[in-house]
Amino acid sequence: MEYTTPLTTAFEVQRATIKQSQQAFEQTIEFQHSVNEAMLDSLDSQESAQRRGVELFQTAVHSYLDAVESTVPGAAGTVDEVRASVDEQFEFLLENHAEAFETVAADYEESLDAYDEMTADYVEALDEQVALLVEAHEEVEAGSVEVAEQWGEQLEQLQGQVEDLQDQVQDVQQQAAEAVDIDVEA
Predict the structure, then answer these.
(1) Nearest residue to 115 via CA among 35, 44, 23
(2) Residue 103's pLDDT band (cuts 50, 70, 90)
(3) Gap between the terminal Cα atoms of the chain
(4) Nearest CA to 71 among 63, 81, 60?
(5) Which of 2, 30, 58, 88 is the most buried (most CB within 10 A)?
(6) Residue among 35, 44, 42, 47 at smallest CA distance from 112
């Protein structure tokens, strides 16, 4: 057991790193989705702001025509024709403007749907691959722990044998010393 603790810890850290990387990737995908949704939502604001700009310009043109009509005698009929023509052009511009934004928004939303579908498929495939990787990693860990335990047991057996051998050598040395002492006394 004492031999496997660092090994088990290393494998757990590796698996945690794999799972954290997977989570970071999925969070990146979610963030990109949020950015894309915000971009789509901002199209309405952009359209509204641009429409107000066109309408303000139309109001400015009307103010100019009002000034011309009030300062130029006999210009009322011509100014009315110009005003009608200007209003017709602004109406055409605003209709095209709205259609353009509708088209852009629809195309962008369609692209987002395709992107979301693609990333969902990719994340699903990644999840499956990570699950397989973690499963294989756990199998490698189990095999490594088993080998480490066997190695530890063999090391303990070898250490026991070395200790027994040391005891035997010590006994032989002690017997030899005693035999030398007996010979010296005799």
Answers:
(1) 35
(2) very high
(3) 55
(4) 63
(5) 58
(6) 35
User: Is the whole model's pTM more than 0.90, yes or no?
Assistant: no
The SS3 of residue 177 is helix
Buried b or exposed e, range 62-76, using 16+ CB within 10 angstroms: eeebeeebeeeeeee
- Nearest to 67, CA basis, from 83, 89, 56: 83
pLDDT tens, position by position, 36-80: 899 888 988 899 999 999 999 999 999 999 999 888 888 888 999
Residue 77 CB-half CA count within 13 A: 1
Contact between 163 and 58 under an 8 Å Cβ cutoff? The reply is no
Which tokens belong to 98? 């709205």
